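Quick start: load a record and inspect it. Here is 8-oxo-dGTP diphosphatase:
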Amino acid sequence: MRRSAAVDAPAHTVAAVLREPSTLVRALAGAGVRARVSDTVGRLLVPGDEVRLGFPFSPWMVPTWLRVVRATPNGMRVVLVRGLWRELTVEASLTELGGRTELVAEFRGTAAFGAASRRSVEHALDTVVREIGAVAQDWAGRRVVVGAAIVHDGLLLTQQRRFPVADAGRWELPGGRVEPGESEVDAVVRECNEELGVGVAVDGGVAAGGSGGATSRVGTDVPLEPDSVLRIHRARLLDPSEVPRPIEHRRLRWVGAAELGELDWLEADRVLVHSLRLMEA
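Running the structure step on this input writes:
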């Protein structure tokens, strides 16, 4: 069973909406499917997170549990953990073409409930694809906050907040808001100079003044309250001998992939940890 739609938003934005729990729960509710995620799930679903579904045709309302096994800028895949289904996989694939994204959602499963199950799934798939498209188009117009994933000798540069009080001691990547008339790449360069006192270049062969290419982006967009999205770009020190300084933060730390999970990240950065681990050193 397959559904597709053309969405007026970049693939990194559509991929983020696919992973946003409240959008998923709301869309499924509109199709009569009860969905619930754990309180420990962050702003976006990441591999290992589970979603509980209650289909209207399921006898005794026995829940179906699905687990996220893939979440990338190219789409998402969830598989059956337990429930009355014999098999169940849902996969969403994204292809960006000229600023628009082709979203293809495919459902593969076998249930013992006959035609009622198929009608319910078809309705749910239609509703979810439609809702994702609408939300993604809204997010595409949000203000942008950039972050820099600066890699040097296989290590990632992180910084520890000293204010505000609620966030003091937590970790994040360097970055900040894109100013009016400024590109994402130029914002990354400016923010790193202001926060670290060093010059950086965005990876991927993207010149200053550009928005950043597919090879410079790390992970998907991340929603920020009330009306912004966070976009991470991979960067490198222009002068490898230059030492970054914690101008606005408590301290800096270079970490390897195995150490990423040890840090007490700000919530917006935490959901990107699995993507940061996948970066090539």
